[in-house]
From TrEMBL:
HAMAP family: MurF. It is found in: Cytoplasm. One of its GO terms (cellular component) is cytoplasm. Its main location: cytoplasm. This is UDP-N-acetylmuramoyl-tripeptide--D-alanyl-D-alanine ligase. It comes from Peribacillus asahii. The gene is murF. Coiled coil: none annotated. Involved in cell wall formation. Catalyzes the final step in the synthesis of UDP-N-acetylmuramoyl-pentapeptide, the precursor of murein. Residues 111-298 form the Mur ligase central domain. Residues 320-446 form the Mur ligase C-terminal domain. One of its GO terms (biological process) is cell division. Belongs to the MurCDEF family. MurF subfamily.
């Protein structure tokens, strides 16, 4: 983590006050939450819509913070404690991260995309950790606050940092990319997430391609080459980039030639710039695409092919992403409740349909959010896509997911499709239907909190 004197911090954030009395105070790490302050942290109080962090500055100091920032337009700064006055505390946090990143001898990999950002980040970290000292985004700390905090928590001897970059509107990825200044940038894919804000997949592609803005000339850009929206737009770039693509098509630099779905892993073969047989301890054809992106990044940083194999074998994904757990009755539950879009929902369903060796297969699907004007149609088409020959029962939760149920009922018998607006009622009914050796997929957008269904099945 960042470890600097208060004088150095003052210079890095452009402090406005005189701190002669406190210049030698040593700061270690940064916190924006007074409840999570650690010894010698710099506390950064933020002005939020609901809470003003400046109210907790003195509490943060009492809990061990070495110093705090203070926004210039907030009245009554406390006396006799180490404070740095800044014009804007949020901007100061970002500028501190920008300066710290510039002081480190570190290779940075930026990862964005509609789906698979976190999985690709985890896979890339696993591959590179076989050879380098790696630091990566924790959880989903991928926005204008999370990314600076991730940079500032980076140990000084970090050799490679893998930074996830999320967005909801245009300009956000450009901002994050220019802050992180990646040496390698990855776009996993273009899906339907953020249609509500951006209006079209073309606009989503343009927003994701903003990650190039922070790349220096000669930087490496890795992208999903089977997506025409990316392939077409990258041709109009202004920068001189080293471009690498991945996908299923033979036109890509790295492509998959076969995939074998196993009950607890996925095996695949590749051709192109990396030729071989690989296996990842996670489920889903879509995760093979994420693995290809990670493999290209590892190759770019000269990780040995044997180490790539080793890193893939030890991949561990962030919770609630195709996470296999066991229920109280011995049923197998795939917890994919962190997020959902039509693309990822379809991929997860196809995965379940392709698995064998289970007594029955059950889908528990919730609302996919932020899909804009076509949201009902997207849900209906998911229901129509489900194979009645491969899936035994479908449970849905939420007003939009009711359209999934409606689509499924076009081919399923009525007594195999259940739709709920009450989560506890869904759980009670689901428990009556499950038994040992059933396979259950639980998937929805994060706001639906369907991990509660997974937790209930484990009791």
């Amino acid at each position: 983590m960042i470890n600097r004197t208060l004088k150095q911090i003052h210079e890095m954030v452009g402090g406005l006050n005189v701190i002669a009395e406190w210049e030698s105070v040593q700061v270690a790490g940064v916190s924006i939450d007074s409840r999570k302050v650690e010894q010698n942290n710099l506390f950064v109080p933020l002005l939020g819509e609901q809470v003003d962090g400046h109210k907790y500055v003195e509490k943060a100091i009492q809990q061990g913070a070495a110093a705090s920032l203070w926004q210039q337009n907030v009245p009554n700064p406390p006396k006799d404690i180490p404070l740095i006055i800044v014009k804007d505390t949020e901007v100061a946090l970002q500028e501190l991260a920008r300066a710290y990143r510039g002081q480190l001898n570190v290779k940075v990999i930026g990862v964005t995309g509609s789906n698979g950002k976190t999985t690709t980040k985890d896979m890339t970290a696993s591959l590179l950790a076989t050879t380098y000292k790696v630091h990566k985004t924790s959880g989903n700390f991928n926005n204008h606050l999370g990314l600076p905090l991730t940079i500032l928590s980076m140990p000084k001897d970090t050799e490679v940092a893998i930074l996830e970059m999320g967005m909801s509107s245009r300009g956000e990825i450009e901002f994050l990319s220019k802050l992180a200044r990646p040496d390698i940038a990855i776009i996993t894919n273009i899906g339907e997430s953020h249609l509500l804000d951006l209006g079209s997949r073309e606009e989503i592609a343009r927003a994701k391609l903003e990650i190039i803005e922070g790349l220096a000339d000669g930087g490496t850009f890795i992208y999903y080459g089977d997506e025409p929206l990316l392939s077409e737009q990258i041709q109009n770039r202004d920068k001189d980039l080293h471009i690498q693509s991945f996908g299923r098509s033979r036109e890509n630099d790295l492509y998959v030639t076969s995939i074998e779905q196993r009950n607890d892993s996925t095996a695949y073969m590749t051709a192109g710039v990396l030729v071989g047989s690989y296996e990842i301890p996670v489920l889903g054809n879509h995760n093979v695409m994420n693995a290809l992106a990670a493999m290209l990044a590892a190759k770019e940083l000269k990780v040995d092919p044997e180490k790539i194999q080793e890193g893939l074998a030890s991949v561990r994904l962030t919770n609630m992403r195709m996470e296999m757990v066991e229920g109280a009755k011995g049923e197998k539950v795939i917890n994919d409740a962190y997020n959902a879009s039509p693309t990822s929902m379809k991929a997860a369903i196809e995965l379940i349909e392709g698995l064998s060796g289970f007594e029955r297969k059950i889908l528990v699907l919730g609302d996919m959010l932020e899909l804009g004007l076509q949201e009902q149609d997207f849900h209906l088409k998911i229901g129509q896509h489900i194979s009645k020959d491969e899936i035994d029962e479908v449970f849905t939760y939420g007003p939009l997911a009711e359209h999934i149920a409606r689509g499924a009922r076009e081919t399923f018998e009525e007594n195999r499709v259940f739709s709920f607006q009450d989560k506890q009622q869904l759980i009670q009914e689901l428990k009556r239907h499950t038994q040992a050796n059933d396979l259950i997929l639980v998937k929805a957008s994060r706001g639906m909190r369907l991990e509660e269904v997974v937790q209930a099945l484990q009791k």
